[in-house]
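Onboarding guide, step 5: your first structure request.
Type a short instruction followed by the sequence, for example:

Predict the 3D structure of this protein.
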Amino acid sequence: MTTHFNYHLNGYGWAEAFFCNEKQNVRFDVSYLSDPVSDLFCGLLKLINNQSDFETTEFYDEPTKNSLIITRHNPDAVTIEIYWSDSWEESGTASKRLIYSDVDTLSNFTLTVCKGIESLLERNTAEEYKQEWVAHEFPMESFNQLREAIKYM
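The system replies with structure tokens like these:
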């Protein structure tokens, strides 16, 4: 069960993502060349609203990437996997390895993500997020939809 998620802006166009459960944790850098916070919110909303059973969020670094894959197995059970890849492209020459794996409920994982994002917003306003993250504004509307959806899970 995922016990902790955090997302820290740590420089102009750079962030750090952190996932943790009882047995493992993973931390990786993220470049502004992707918008993983917005993509994660959209993916979670699709899962919650039964529009999807499989969602991927890409966290691009330069030149590597980390792919968060959430797979639903029944109404509230999900598998969370994070793969590191040495390339942005999914080619036969790309090296890929599993760096985090967890089984959780969709409701707990979503709540954990929201708590981590609330911590981010305590450190940075939406305006500061945009200044630091460069290419993307904070997806406040999606975040509010996600927080509202948790109430009914």
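Each response can be followed by summary notes, for example: The first strand starts at residue 2 and ends at 9.
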